[in-house]
Write a structure and sequence with these properties.
By secondary structure, the chain is mostly beta strands. It folds into two domains: about 25-155, Jelly Rolls (Sandwich), CATH 2.60.120; about 165-250, Jelly Rolls (Sandwich), CATH 2.60.120. It contains one helix and 21 strands. The chain has one helix at about 1-15, and strands spanning about 20, 25-30, 35-40, 50-55, 60-65, 70-80, 80-85, 90-95, 95-100, 105-110, 115-125, 155, 165, 175-185, 185-190, 195-205, 205-210, 215-220, 225, 230-235, 240-250. It has a seven-stranded antiparallel sheet, with no helix packed on it. It has a six-stranded antiparallel sheet with strand order 1-19-16-21-14-13, with no helix packed on it. Strands 5-10-7-8 form a four-stranded antiparallel sheet, with no helix packed on it.
Length: about 250
């Protein structure tokens, strides 16, 4: 028994509160016409949030679906998409956000003539999403079971903010997003409570994250995944860095 305990101790001590996830390590999954990449997901131990990246060609549809217990926040980083709910389309251009509460039917269709780049995060993770079972465009698939409630989806901007763009007051109780702009050597401090999670997605530039013990480096399209408790200092390295910060509280 003592031997088994001693063997378990090193693994526990090696558990990382802060991990840099290179974009090259993201895993593909397909919904409808769009192959996206899961960056932060349950296979990494994520329990409060996910992060997905999608590059969608003109006219391509990310199939309509429903998250039974998860809120979905979709950011358009480039191009433009229509947020689809049934036959209804709502145009979201680069710099825009769609916050979709759990239970609402939704999908996207790329608008315009160019590729659309999106990231999305679900709070908490939708364990079924990556299996393909939510893909309503598959042959023989049933329509998504959910609702379409007028005004339930919130449309916001993130690109004009240097700070939070969602909040509990507009319904994002289980996860919040912020847009951070950093010049070289500029920094901000952030913390993660025990049981909480945070993701820093480097949209542009590069950053360092100091957790008091180690300085972690992340480049463009890389992500930093943090599980609390943690106290962090995030600093810009490139002349201008843009970070999407996702915070998911313990409860």
């Amino acid at each position: 028994m003592l031997r088994c305990f001693l063997l378990l101790v090193p693994a526990a001590l090696m558990a990382q509160a802060v991990r840099v996830i290179p974009f090259s390590e993201s895993k593909p999954f397909t919904m409808g016409d769009v192959t996206s990449r899961r960056i932060v997901h349950p296979d990494l131990g994520a329990k409060k949030t996910t992060l997905n990246y999608s590059a969608s060609l003109p006219g391509a549809e990310f199939a309509q679906h429903v998250h039974d217990y998860s809120d979905d926040t979709i950011l358009v980083l480039g191009g433009e998409v229509n947020l689809r709910q049934g036959d209804s389309l709502h145009l979201v251009k680069a710099g825009g956000v769609a916050f979709v509460p759990s239970g609402q039917i939704h999908g996207t269709v790329t608008a315009g003539r160019g590729e659309a780049i999106m990231i999305s995060f679900q709070n908490p993770p939708d364990l079924i999403l990556y299996t393909g079972a939510r893909d309503s465009k598959k042959a023989g698939a049933a329509p998504p079971k959910g609702v379409i409630t007028a005004g339930a989806v919130k449309y916001l901007r993130f690109d004009d903010k240097n700070g939070p763009f969602t909040s509990p007051s507009m319904g994002s109780m289980r996860g919040a997003g912020a847009h951070r702009k950093l010049k070289t050597a500029e920094s901000f401090k952030t913390s993660v409570d025990a049981g909480g999670e945070q993701v820093l997605f480097v949209w542009r530039g590069s950053i360092t994250v100091n957790d008091g013990k180690t300085i972690h480096e992340a480049g463009e399209k890389d992500s930093v995944f943090i599980q609390g408790p943690a106290q962090l200092t995030v600093s810009g390295v490139a002349p201008e860095s843009r970070i999407i910060q996702i915070q998911a509280p313990p409860k």
